[in-house]
Amino acid sequence: MKNLNILLAASAISLFACDHPMSFHTKVNEDGSLDKTIVMDKIEAGKADINIFGISEKNNWKVTKTRNPDSTTKSDEAKYRLEFVRHFESADKMNEVLDRDVDTLFQVQSKFKKKFRWFYTYIRYSETIRPINHFKKVFPKDYFTIEDSLFIKRLPPEGSPISKADSVNLILLNEKISSHYTNMGIFNELFPVLEQVVKKCNQDKKWIDTLYRKRERIYELINKDQGNFLSAKKIADELHIPLPKEADKEFDSLSKEFNSRLNFMSFARDGKYAISFAMPWAIVNTNADSVAANYAVWKPVMHKFAFSNYEMYAESKKLNIWAVIVSVGIVGLTVFVLRKRN
């Protein structure tokens, strides 16, 4: 269970350190087709085939791998910049790839709408990042208040200055996430697994009773030293519950699915994100952090989509020249007819 220390490997502030920048760019075309580019930087080469997006050359992505110039010379520790590029015929086609309902994948839902309003044609494109919180036995509403949600909504883009008061609030929020929500999430997922292992390896019912009497102590052991202490055998020995050495293998097997979710959450939370849209025409409405002509950019902190959907949208329009010509022609013809009658 060595991977269980990932979410607990830092303090409340450093828990959300940005160790691997990621950028998502979407070129939106008039016909509704999309050109998607995903870049992952400062990561292992193996992420070209296995990553939190579930994308690779095997499912039709063009992949470019470049070694990071700041990377160590040791090949086993080398970091790379991975660029994934793919063309999609529509938003629905892209959703089939990037919005799959899988607990270990980063999920993004795209929407494309085109409207004709005589003089103007409008295109609205949006992407919604699904929550990266995949704990199943704890719920955000039990830990976070409406004030927490409002504070998260008004957090500025990544790298922007923040007031001293908000800095304190952010520290307290991170503390609540790491020391309370995350710790309890791990405990609630692993305690039933430990119970199954004890039942399977030791038939005496009194040891199950011991587990429930010592729940608080087990909570401390699971989170002791940021999770490094975690082992079914060690926990059992601490509680004087006889378990064979094979118990750890059983524990690892039963917690494998949870481990996968935890690994996903830790990687997603450690990311530094930049999202951009290139719209076909000038942008007239958006919630982007910055806009230049037809280009919109967002740099959200991870908190924005930790527990709720985070929507980014941009709307652009173009003047329908033919509609103007037709309208002028109709007005001119009307004036001509009226004058001729007079």
Can you tell me about this structure?
This protein has 342 residues and is an alpha+beta fold. It is built from nine helices and eleven strands. The protein has helices spanning 91-98, 146-153, 164-201, 206-213, 215-223, 232-238, 247-254, 256-269, 321-341; strands spanning 20-28, 34-43, 62-67, 80-88, 108-117, 120-129, 271-278, 283-286, 290-292, 295-298, 310-319. The strands form two sheets. The chain has a seven-stranded mixed β-sheet with strand order 3-4-2-1-7-10-9. Strands 5-6-11-8 form a four-stranded antiparallel β-sheet. A hairpin with a 5-residue loop joins strand 1 and strand 2 (34-43). The longest helix is centred in the middle third of the chain and has 38 residues, at 164-201.
- Strand neighbour order, sheet with most strands: 3-4-2-1-7-10-9
**Based on the structure, what is the oligomeric state of the protein chains?**
single chain
Outline the low-pLDDT stretches.
Answer: 1-18
On the 0 to 100 scale, the average pLDDT is 86
State the order of secondary-structure elements, H for helix, E for strand.
EEEEHEEHHHHHHHEEEEEH
Per DSSP, what share of the residues sits in E-state strands of 2 or more residues?
Answer: 15-25%
| Total of helices | 9
Distance between the termini: 93 Å
What best-fitting shape do the alpha-carbon axes yield? elongated
**In terms of structural class, how would the helical and strand content be classed?**
alpha+beta
Outline the biggest β-sheet: 7 strands, mixed
- Give the radius of gyration: 26 Å
Question: Helix coverage percent of residues?
Answer: 25-40%
Tally of strands: 11
